């Protein structure tokens, strides 16, 4: 918003005295210089997310960790818009994920992940884990039913970008750093990100039972891939 400087005329009233010569009018102030904040925003292209895949790998911890499972949490329902500008560092995005779309320990996803996740998890354990995850003490899905990711800034160079992302979850907001890579070809855009977070980065506390004898490790892994196409 442009700001304009306006002269303020002060009138003083007092006792009668000798007349004084009126001061000449002040010269008009030059127009303010156009700052970066008042420059028009760089034009952008709107790209819509058309496909996505999120994986969160959560690990067991504690002296009795062998009684628990490492969990693989997945969703293919990330949606949103990318506002693509030139240079890419001037771009922004806003994404949403319905928390109800989170799937815990899908057998096919675990088999594809292999390694520590290859073994299937019993159905009752999957249901209990999902119930705890969406409950008031963790994601609090009843209070805010979706996860929102809003890019505040993007820095770096091609192949080595990093976004500062505001995460809105369970009625709280936190900013995290997420490195990512982007590939563009014609009307298709693919973005991939893989990074580690701690529960405290999102204002969460790891789930624990037995006074910490069995608990969730504080650090977890996030992998995200999305495809976007040009919007209307």
* N-to-C series of helices and strands: EEEEEEHHEEEEEEE
CATH topology: Lipocalin
| Quaternary class | single chain
Going across the major beta sheet, what is the strand order? 1-4-5-7-8-9-10-13
Shape: elongated
| Number of spatially distinct domains | 1
- Low-confidence sequence ranges: 1-27, 32-39
Structural class: mainly beta
The rounded distance between the terminal residues' Cα atoms is 29 Å
**CATH architect. name:** Beta Barrel
Relevant CATH superfamily: Lipid/polyisoprenoid-binding, YceI-like
> How big a fraction of the residues is strand?
35-45%
CATH class: Mainly Beta
Total beta strands: 13
Largest sheet: 8 strands, antiparallel, barrel
Give a quick precis of the structure:
The protein is mainly beta and 232 residues long. Helix content is 8%, strand content 43%.
């Amino acid at each position: 918003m442009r700001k304009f400087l306006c002269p303020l005329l002060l009138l003083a009233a007092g006792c009668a005295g000798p007349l004084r010569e009126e001061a000449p009018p002040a010269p008009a102030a030059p127009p303010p210089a156009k700052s970066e904040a008042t420059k028009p925003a760089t034009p952008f292209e709107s790209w819509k997310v058309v496909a996505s895949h999120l994986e969160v790998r959560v690990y067991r911890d504690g002296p009795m960790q062998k009684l628990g499972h490492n969990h693989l949490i997945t969703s293919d329902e990330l949606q949103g818009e990318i506002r693509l500008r030139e240079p890419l560092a001037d771009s922004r995005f806003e994404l949403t994920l319905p928390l109800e779309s989170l799937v815990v320990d899908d057998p096919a996803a675990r088999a594809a992940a292999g390694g520590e996740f290859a073994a299937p998890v019993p159905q009752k354990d999957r249901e209990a884990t999902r119930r705890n995850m969406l409950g008031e003490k963790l994601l609090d899905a009843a209070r805010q039913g979706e996860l929102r990711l809003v890019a505040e800034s993007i820095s770096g160079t091609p192949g080595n970008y990093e976004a500062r992302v505001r995460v809105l979850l369970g009625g709280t907001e936190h900013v995290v750093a997420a490195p990512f890579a982007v590939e563009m070809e014609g009307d298709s855009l693919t973005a991939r990100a893989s990074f580690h977070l701690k529960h405290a980065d999102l204002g969460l506390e790891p789930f624990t039972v037995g006074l910490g004898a069995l608990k969730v490790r504080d650090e977890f892994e996030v992998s995200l891939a999305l495809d976007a196409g040009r919007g209307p």
